[in-house]
Amino acid sequence: MSGALAVDFALVIAGFIGMEAVTYVVHRFVMHGPLESLHRSHHRNAAAAFADKRPEPNDVFPAAFSLVVLAALWVGFNLSGFAWLVPLFVGVTVYGIVYTAIHDGIIHGRVAWMKRIDTRWTRSLTLAHRAHHRANSEPYGMLLPSLTMHERSVRNQVARSGSRPSQVPVDQ
Questions:
Q1: At a CB cut-off of 8 Å and minimum separation 6, what does 47 contact?
Q2: Whole-angstrom Cα distance, residue 41 to residue 35?
Q3: Does 171 map to a domain?
Q4: Is residue 167, in this structure, part of any structural domain at all?
Q5: Which residues constitute the domain of residue 16?
Q6: Domain count across the chain
Q7: pLDDT digits over 114-165, tens only?
């Protein structure tokens, strides 16, 4: 592997791994912070809104991430000295694809054949996500929820995080 290819590959990996941290921070401090009114639509009845094929206010978040990726790729392809943004944001894009497949396909069961994927890891992700929906607290990340969940009870997570429980029952 040539030096330039190795650097590009490392940037793709860094973009992918870095997005788990970005996901955590944005989810915890933006989606459950000042823009919680938009994100609440996902916690209320995500499966029903998806089944009706209607957009929900929470859809603004993946759209915003997409715009950031498109802008970064445009800069990387068009401005001298910023080509490193291309492999970095390819990694971000791969993370987005994986996130969508896991979150929508496996956890929320919106893709019929993906609902049948049943491994220890997918079960742990589903349980962690359900705990998050029920308590409106940890875990805020997606692919590695065990980094922040540990063995605490949901009640302790809510008390520690300061997040308000959702006022509306959730589907998952």
A1: 108, 109, 110, 171, 172
A2: 11
A3: no
A4: no
A5: 3-161
A6: 1
A7: 878 888 888 888 888 888 878 777 877 777 776 665 544 444 444 444 444 4
